[in-house]
Design goal:
The chain is 29% helix and 30% strand. The chain is an alpha+beta fold. It folds into three domains: 238 residues; 118 residues, Dna Ligase, domain 1 (2-Layer Sandwich); 89 residues, no CATH class. Strands 8-7-1-6-5-9 form a six-stranded mixed beta sheet, sandwiched between helices. The protein has a six-stranded antiparallel β-barrel with strand order 16-17-18-19-20-21. A hairpin with a 2-residue loop joins strand 2 and strand 3. Helix 11 packs antiparallel against helix 12.
């Protein structure tokens, strides 16, 4: 029998039974091949939600599952995150049809009416949908029918790759178990007690007694699955096109005209970015010449931006590479890479915030000039009092922190990356050095200040470091050194001395 539909309404149901597990495996490739499940608390019990493990099933008690399979990898379920993922997959599925709806918690409905011929027929399209989800890392069950609920019932019953012929929905769902209608548990249990195990069994019963006993939800489910009524669908709204287009009545040739056109494109694109809560990381300007030639100016931005004035400055130099010849008749500006860019709370004075924004713009322009592949970083203070951990190389766009643990103490202008061990003579065991040997020479100490004791940071991963005593010393030659003593907390071992920094 032919599955091709002509002008009939056709729907594809996509069920992702292992959505949460597949998403975890995509994020953590090391989980490939392992038994895994997500769980959530229901009252005072913990039960499995999404399961990909032998002999286990959803709604099973977590304790029982662990007893049966001790090596089971468990992760807490994240319903909001999974709902967001399903929404993103809905946007991704717009490649097949312009009408996609969510079938929460783990399904999608694709209205493919009139689209199947573009893929070579219904069966070919259905196979392509399943294959594309598989390549993306998500195992899917797919089915096609004349209404959305009939197709969804097929995949919920465990079928995949099924194309229900036009007009065959009622016959196809008749053999399915009533659980395929996704009825409330008490209704499914009540029907089973009456011996009504399949959808066909229920459809053959008089409607009035069913309504009195089970209420409206059962009749609604039957009407939707049989096609008697259409269920309202929650459509996925396609994301706004992040581009701006300008066509010119007369070809533009001069640089001022090109600048004005790009300014208008930037204003329009930045307004769209603001509406979508996004900022551009990469932009592409396509300039179409009257002779058919197309030229591109690509721009990379250090940090996400939708500031039109800032982007104009970045475009100023690259626009010089355009060769208009007889003129450009059309331009398209696209944001080819974007990140979320929400409004930020200003901290401190407005002047400080404005200065920070200006610094970011200057940094973006610098990186754009020297090339996106250049490695740029800045030195930032950290919250550690341990000398070698008190600063770090960070992303130049990282939000600067102001640690409150730094005290007003003198520190060396140069810290040695690898402290040098010293031979030291002290007048008393716990006193400052009197003489020290450095690079084969003995130096007498004229002045010494200290000790400044640094205890290990018990809250960090280096809590087992020995405590240190630091001294600032000045030799008779005038060198000012920062020396460190270790071992005072180990009476059985001799103290060891190191040169850690130079004060001048």
């Amino acid at each position: 029998m032919r599955g091709d539909s002509g002008n009939a309404r056709r729907f594809v149901a996509v069920q992702l039974p292992w959505l949460a597990v597949d998403a975890l495996r995509r994020r953590e490739p090391s989980l490939a091949g392992q038994a895994i499940a997500t769980w959530q608390a229901v009252g005072n019990r913990r039960v499995l939600v999404c399961v990909d493990a032998p002999h286990l099933h959803a709604k099973q008690a977590l304790a029982d599952a662990q007893a049966m399979l001790p090596d089971l990898v468990l992760r807490a379920a994240d319903p909001p995150g999974e709902a967001d993922l399903l929404q993103r997959l809905g946007h991704w599925a717009l490649r097949f049809t312009p009408i996609v709806a969510l079938d929460a918690p783990n399904g999608l409905i694709l209205d493919v009416s009139g689209c199947t011929d573009l893929f070579g027929g219904e069966r070919t399209m259905l196979a392509e949908v399943e294959r594309c989800f598989g390549r993306a890392g998500y195992r899917a069950r797919v089915a096609m029918a004349g209404n959305a609920d009939a197709a969804a019932a097929m995949v919920r019953a465990g079928f995949s790759g099924v194309v229900v012929p036009v007009g065959g929905d009622l016959a196809a769902i008749g053999a399915l178990p009533v659980a395929a209608l996704r009825l409330p548990g008490e209704i499914a249990t009540g029907l089973a007690r009456l011996g009504l195990l399949t959808v066909g069994d229920v459809l053959r019963q008089p409607r009035a007694p069913l309504t009195r006993r089970f209420g409206r939800p059962l009749l609604d489910a039957l009407d939707f699955a049989s096609g008697a009524r259409a269920r309202p669908l929650t459509l996925v709204r396609p994301p706004p096109a992040l581009l701006a287009v300008r066509a010119f009545l007369e070809p533009i040739v001069t640089r001022p005209a090109i600048d004005r056109a790009v300014d208008a494109l930037l204003d329009e694109l930045c307004a769209t970015l603001e509406e979508s809560g996004s900022g551009a990381r990469r932009l592409s300007l396509l300039a179409f010449r009257v002779d058919g030639d197309v030229q591109e100016v690509a721009l990379g931005i250090g940090s996400s931006s939708r500031d039109a004035a800032h982007l104009r400055r970045l475009f100023a130099e690259p626009l010089g590479t355009l060769q208009p010849d007889l003129g450009f008749e059309r331009m398209i500006l696209r944001a080819t890479e974007t990140n979320a860019l929400q409004a930020r709370q200003l901290i401190g004075s407005l002047g400080v915030a404005a200065l920070a924004g200006e610094q970011q713009r200057m940094l973006s322009e610098l990186i754009d000039r020297i090339g996106q592949r250049a490695v740029v970083w800045r030195v930032a203070a950290t919250g550690s009092h341990w000398p070698e951990d008190s600063v770090a190389m960070v992303d130049p766009y990282a939000t600067p922190e102001e640690p409150d643990v730094w005290e007003d103490r003198r520190r060396p202008v140069r810290l040695l990356p690898q402290p040098k061990e010293l031979a030291v003579l002290a007048e008393v065991p716990d006193g400052p050095p009197a003489r020290l040997r450095l690079d084969g020479r003995v130096h007498r100490i004229r002045h010494a200040a200290g000790p400044e004791r640094l205890e290990p940071e018990w809250w960090g991963d280096k809590h087992d470091r020995p405590r240190r005593d630091y001294f600032r010393v000045e030799t008779e030659e005038g060198s000012r050194l920062w020396v460190c003593r270790l071992g005072m907390d180990l009476p059985s071992a001799p103290a060891r001395w190191f040169l850690h920094g130079v004060m001048n």
